Amino acid sequence: MRQSYLFTSESVSEGHPDKVSDQISDAIVDLFLSKDPEARVACETLTTTQLVVLAGEIRCKGVFENGEWAPGALDEIEKTVRNTVKDIGYEQAGFHWNELRFENNLHGQSAHIAQGVDASGNKDEGAGDQGIMFGFACDETPDLMPATLYYSHKVLEHMAADRHSGAAPFLEPDAKSQVTLKFENGKPVAATAIVVSTQHAKGYDEGAKEAELHTYVKKVIADVLPANLLSNGTEYHINPTGSFEIGGPDGDAGLTGRKIIVDTYGGAAPHGGGAFSGKDPTKVDRSAAYITRYLAKNIVAAGLAKRCTIQLAYAIGVSKPLSLYVDTHGTGTVGDDKIEAAIQSIDKLGGLTPRGIRTHLGLNKPIYRKTAAYGHFGRTPEGDFFPWEKTDLVDDLKAALA
């Protein structure tokens, strides 16, 4: 691995059209899991000017059974969608929570998929699909995330908090950020370029109001990034196109699952290709990506490596993973093969089967809408939320390697 280089990651705000779609899809997952912890959900969302469309497959006791919706279920789905858009803050002429058109095209899950996934007789519950999933952790930040992505997220989270509180009333929901850091000896030493594009109120693209917006954004950056990374040599690109009044789904159509690099590691690690939002935890695209992050984070937290990438692979309908791969990028204190063996020896992980993952992490709960903006990883575990960010496997790993 190179020791001196520039690296860049981007983030997008909760008001970005693709993130609006992700949050709606995960709000639907949460709705169904709140009714039935064993619900099966695959919900895709399209957002565009004054329109939200849902499509996908579900199975949920008491809500959708035998091809029929329970009384009031359709109204509850629409209310969930509108409230999600309202919470984000869209009350604009081109996208308004109370005025948008809504279409629900959710229908029953394929019986052929269900028979492969469901447990029956001596058959354990199988994976909801085939695929490869990656997890990653590194020691660049306190949350063991790549620094470029970590700070990109934090800038937008800070701005969103100010928008919601009224501290920055000129901000609108849609925004993007991008952070380029210079690394020496594998550690970030300087921010060479920072890009922030934010939707704004009318008039904040010229004169004194534009200067006010630019000053505000630079202050947010200074509050978020460590002072030693910023200097007179840092380039700032704030709303480089000039005006950004039209944004969100009115500016660009949004779709669930189009921000998979923002959701994960900002390009600093491999990605298996599967999106997370809109999927219940039987889908290993989601649950296996969470357990690989959990494993990688605990390996780094245990001092076994400074960087760690983990891959799992599954076949649809098959419970046991096809492969487990650990790579500590030459930073490990023990061999990668020994870490692989240690992981496989820890009983509480349930053999890394879909059921074992969900049981250990407690994933059959309505905990997903919070994941759908500002990244699924590097978040603070609290109560039932973000359990894959806990470092409670450290002692087990050390014991297995003793």
Task: Give a verbal description of the structure.
By secondary structure, the protein is an alpha+beta fold. It is built from 10 helices and 15 strands. The protein has helices at 17-35, 73-88, 111-117, 147-165, 207-224, 260-263, 284-301, 336-345, 354-361, 394-401, and strands at 5-12, 40-48, 51-59, 64-65, 68-69, 91-92, 95-96, 101-108, 131-138, 171-184, 187-200, 235-238, 254-255, 307-314, 323-327. It has a 4-stranded mixed β-sheet, covered by helices on one side. It has a 4-stranded mixed β-sheet with strand order 8-3-2-13, with helices on one face. Helix 7 crosses helix 9 (354-361). The longest helix is centred in the first third of the chain and has 19 residues, at 17-35. The mean pLDDT is 95.
Describe how the helices and strands are arranged.
Layout: E1 5-12, H1 17-35, E2 40-48, E3 51-59, E4 64-65, E5 68-69, H2 73-88, E6 91-92, E7 95-96, E8 101-108, H3 111-117, E9 131-138, H4 147-165, E10 171-184, E11 187-200, H5 207-224, E12 235-238, E13 254-255, H6 260-263, H7 284-301, E14 307-314, E15 323-327, H8 336-345, H9 354-361, H10 394-401
Parallel strand pairs: 3-8, 11-12
Antiparallel strand pairs: 1-10, 2-3, 2-13, 4-5, 6-7, 9-14, 10-11, 14-15
| Number of extended strands | 15
Residues in helix, %: 25-40%
Tell me the major beta sheet.
Answer: 4 strands, mixed
Give the uncertain stretches in residue-range form: none
Radius of gyration based on Cα positions: 22 Å
Strand/helix succession: EHEEEEHEEEHEHEEHEEHHEEHHH
How would the global form be characterised?
A: flat
How would you classify the helix and strand content by structural class?
alpha+beta
Placed side by side, the strands forming the largest sheet appear as 1-10-11-12
Strand-residue proportion = 15-25%
Per DSSP, the total helix count is: 10
- Cα-to-Cα separation, first versus last residue: 29 Å
- The average pLDDT score comes to 95
